[in-house]
Amino acid sequence: MFPEYLNQLFYFVGEAVVFMAVFVLILSIFVALLILYSFKTGNFFAARTMLLGIILLESVIKALFWATRVDDSMVDDVGVRLRNYINEKEFLKTPCERRFIFMPQCVRSTECPAKLTPEGIKCVNCGRCSIGEAKNYAETMGYRFFIVPGSSFIKRIIKKYRPGAIVGVGCHMEIKEGLDLCHSHAIPARGVPLTTAGCVATTLDWEQFYEAITDKESTPKDIVASQPREKEI
Q: pTM score, two decimals?
């Protein structure tokens, strides 16, 4: 038998644990509903608070989605869109000449003849994929365009050139890590998710990419239409 004061302590601790679990569950359900709302409407309510909820409760929210047979990838999708929304004001203040684009090497054609250099892969505009035309378009706006094989290149380039803003392309996990990296350097950033992930021959929604770099609703449709269709693998 435990002394009475220990019994009371265990009782209060148990109550606190149950209360905390119920609180976390209710908060997770609330944030999950906000995610569903934002995913369907494109609107955000209390964006910074919502993003904090996603960061702290991501595993619980994804478990709720899994249990209710809802695609939990929308948690990552809304998380990226939230970060883009929060960064938008500072991003738009930055002139294009101080903005950098990081494109993952996996978007390249499998027959790409470009070579790796200390600052990434140097596109030779061979026409085998859509990167060359995107690079030319972005550079006419003033962007610096890098095709990178990994995060170590991005860190090195950020340290060397100190960009004012960044547009990053990648899978959801890479974008989350990249946006966190940019936040640690106080760099406003936008993420553009790949439509299919992988190590080679990944695909990208080029219209979404051009929207991310043009600062306006109108997208260069002629550029998008001229992009070669990605091969399905």
A: 0.79
**Domain regions of the chain by residue span:** 4-84, 94-226
If 0-12 CB within 10 Å is exposed, 13-18 middle and 19+ buried, where does residue 104 land? buried
Distance CA 158, CA 165 (A): 10
Task: Indicate if the alpha-carbon torsion angle 131, 134, 140, 145 is positive or negative.
Answer: negative
Within 13 A of 200's CA, how many CA atoms are on the CB side?
5
Cα-to-chain-centroid distance, residue 185: 16
CA pair distance 213, 62, nearest whole angstrom: 31
pLDDT of residue 229: 47
In the predicted model, residues of the chain with pLDDT beneath 50 are 217-218, 225-226, 228-233
Cα–Cα–Cα angle for 179, 23, 41, nearest 5°? Answer: 50
DSSP one-letter string for 74-120:
HHHHHHHHHHHHHHHHHHHHS-GGGEEEEEEGGGS-TT---EEETTE
Rg of the chain on CA atoms, in Å? 22
Q: What is the pLDDT of residue 107?
A: 92
What fold is seen in the domain 94-226? Answer: Rossmann fold (3.40.50)
Predicted confidence (pLDDT) per residue in 65-93, tens digit: 998 888 888 888 888 889 999 999 999 99
